[in-house]
């Protein structure tokens, strides 16, 4: 692959010194950053290079979403403004229980296209069910050029927490062989594929959906084969009730089945005791913060300032489209920076710089990829995003980090480079046919709703003529 110079941008490196380079340039050779600095200096060093002029843009490391449900993007807007039991048991699980593998592939392409166009270059799929077709998800990652850590579901109980009313749709229930065995088979087939852009993870169901024995079998395999784990945890009050019924706090339970450690990403983590926070810090376990999902589903607000104070590594995730309605991590950053100020009455809580770290280098640490992505440094993978901040809605700006976190959205993304390849240019996808992806997603979403028998519920609440 020929080398390329990206010049005349404001570059937020998120390196160890957190330096910002005005009128900066990045040189990419193959899939690596091979030089970085002032544009004039790099152009002097590399006078014959092809050049992409990014004047008026801010370059940031590629955004990393540490919690994402790719299948659910097909269900955007199907379960708005419902409380959690109705949302999950009467809508989302019923819809997902009627998916085909073709639906799973279409949903993955829709998710990936949206993520790329809004600046996400790497994501952690949390819990991909067998019926969605894991091969299709991996193929969508391979074809699109994005980087994906793909959690395949591990479960053996079809309930949720300790509430009998919270039963999974039969179409989603899996046993040990399908879930754990299937994950191992997919790990053997796909882990490290697509020039190591694909990693396969265990996507464990929430406690109450997995027996203690299966958790311990999974954590043993995790250590033996170096396969990371992600799991929803302490998201809602019902989760706390479940742990209490076991005479545990959330983290004492996780510790009892060997879930804690630097290869685990626990998601949501809203309902924690002080002792839980200490256990997270001591074990090096990572947290994925999903403020929009937690707010929209009325789950609560994660204790992010307390976690930060304790030294816990926190990444950021959009969660699924039915509980967020967008895969735009830039919008997620803004809420993450604002919501903690609101409840703490402290405007200095969780500043913009901390949130950009969550969405970049912290996410890379959570995924075990901080040696190769998450910051812009010589020798790291060429994963970066250029935001066009020349428009009236972004002007003026004085602090580029504030401009990114508080003002920019995914619609300002101009160029996206992953593994050295330009995947988005002038805001347009280069590796996917966007119209084709959207058309198929529209059709398949309607078909899923019809198969699930929910057409009379998934519609406008106001009269439509």
Give a description of the structure.
There is one protein chain. This protein is of the alpha/beta class and 465 residues long. It has 2 domains: 4-61 and 380-429, Urease, subunit C, domain 1 (Roll), CATH 2.30.40; 63-366, TIM Barrel (Alpha-Beta Barrel), CATH 3.20.20.140. Helices cover 38% and strands 22% of the residues. It has 16 helices and 17 strands. It has helices at residues 39-45, 84-96, 101-117, 134-144, 176-190, 193-196, 212-225, 237-245, 250-256, 274-283, 291-296, 304-310, 329-344, 352-366, 400-407, 434-451; strands at residues 4-12, 20-29, 32-38, 50-53, 57-61, 63-68, 120-128, 147-154, 198-204, 229-233, 264-268, 286-289, 314-316, 384-388, 413-418, 421-425, 428-429. The strands form 2 sheets. Strands 1, 2, 3, 4, 5, 14, 15, 16 and 17 form a 9-stranded mixed β-sheet that branches. An 8-stranded parallel β-sheet has the order 6-7-8-9-10-11-12-13. Helix 7 (212-225) links the parallel strand 9 (198-204) and strand 10 (229-233). Helix 3 (101-117) packs across helix 16 (434-451) and helix 13 packs across helix 14. The chain is globular, with a radius of gyration of 21 Å. It starts with a strand and ends in a 14-residue tail after the last helix. The mean pLDDT is 97. Residues 58-423 form the Amidohydrolase-related domain. InterPro entries: Amidohydro-rel, Metal-dep_hydrolase_composite, Metal_Hydrolase, MTA/SAH_deaminase. GO terms for molecular function: deaminase activity; hydrolase activity, acting on carbon-nitrogen (but not peptide) bonds, in cyclic amidines; metal ion binding. Keywords: Hydrolase, Metal-binding, Zinc. This is Amidohydrolase-related domain-containing protein.
């Amino acid at each position: 692959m020929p080398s390329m110079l990206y010049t005349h941008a404001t570059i937020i490196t998120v390196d160890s010194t957190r330096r910002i380079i005005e009128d900066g340039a990045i040189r990419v050779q193959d899939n690596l950053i091979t030089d970085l600095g002032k544009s004039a200096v790099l152009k002097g060093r590399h006078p014959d290079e092809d050049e992409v002029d990014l004047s008026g843009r801010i370059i940031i490391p590629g955004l990393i979403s540490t919690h994402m449900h790719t299948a659910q993007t097909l269900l955007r807007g199907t379960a708005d403004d419902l409380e959690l039991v109705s949302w999950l048991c009467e809508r989302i699980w019923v819809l997902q229980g009627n998916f085909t593998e073709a639906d799973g592939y279409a949903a993955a392409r829709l998710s990936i296209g949206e993520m790329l166009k809004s600046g996400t270059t790497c994501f952690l799929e949390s819990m991909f069910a067998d019926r969605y077709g894991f091969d299709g998800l991996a193929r969508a990652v391979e074809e699109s050029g994005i980087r994906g850590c793909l959690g395949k579901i591990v479960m053996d109980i079809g309930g949720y927490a300790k509430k009998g009313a919270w039963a999974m749709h039969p179409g989603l229930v899996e046993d040990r062989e399908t879930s754990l065995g299937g994950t191992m088979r997919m790990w053997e087939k796909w882990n490290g594929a697509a020039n190591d852009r694909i990693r396969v993870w265990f996507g464990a169901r929430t406690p109450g959906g997995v027996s203690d024995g299966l958790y311990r079998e999974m954590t043993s395999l995790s250590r033996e084969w170096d396969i990371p784990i992600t799991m929803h945890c302490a998201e809602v009050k019902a989760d706390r009730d479940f742990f209490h019924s076991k005479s545990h706090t959330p983290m004492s339970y996780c510790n009892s089945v060997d879930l804690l450690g630097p290869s685990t990403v626990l998601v949501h983590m809203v309902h924690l005791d002080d002792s839980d926070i200490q256990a997270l810090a001591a074990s090096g376990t990572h947290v994925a913060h999903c403020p929009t999902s937690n707010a929209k589903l009325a789950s609560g607000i994660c204790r992010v300032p307390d976690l930060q104070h304790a030294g816990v590594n926190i990444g950021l995730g959009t969660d699924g489209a039915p509980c967020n309605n967008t895969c735009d991590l830039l919008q997620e950053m803004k809420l993450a920076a604002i919501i903690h100020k609101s409840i703490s009455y402290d405007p200095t809580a969780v500043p913009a710089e901390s949130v950009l770290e969550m969405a970049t280098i912290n996410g890379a640490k959570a995924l075990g990829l901080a040696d190769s992505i998450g910051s812009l440094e010589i020798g790291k993978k060429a994963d970066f995003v250029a935001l066009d901040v020349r428009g009236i809605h972004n002007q003026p700006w004085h602090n580029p980090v504030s401009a990114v976190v508080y003002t920019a959205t995914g619609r300002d993304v101009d160029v996206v480079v992953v593994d050295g390849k330009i995947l988005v240019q002038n805001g347009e996808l280069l590796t996917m046919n966007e119209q084709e992806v959207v058309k198929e997603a529209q059709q398949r979403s309607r078909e899923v709703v019809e198969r699930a028998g929910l057409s009379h519920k998934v519609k406008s609440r106001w009269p439509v003529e």
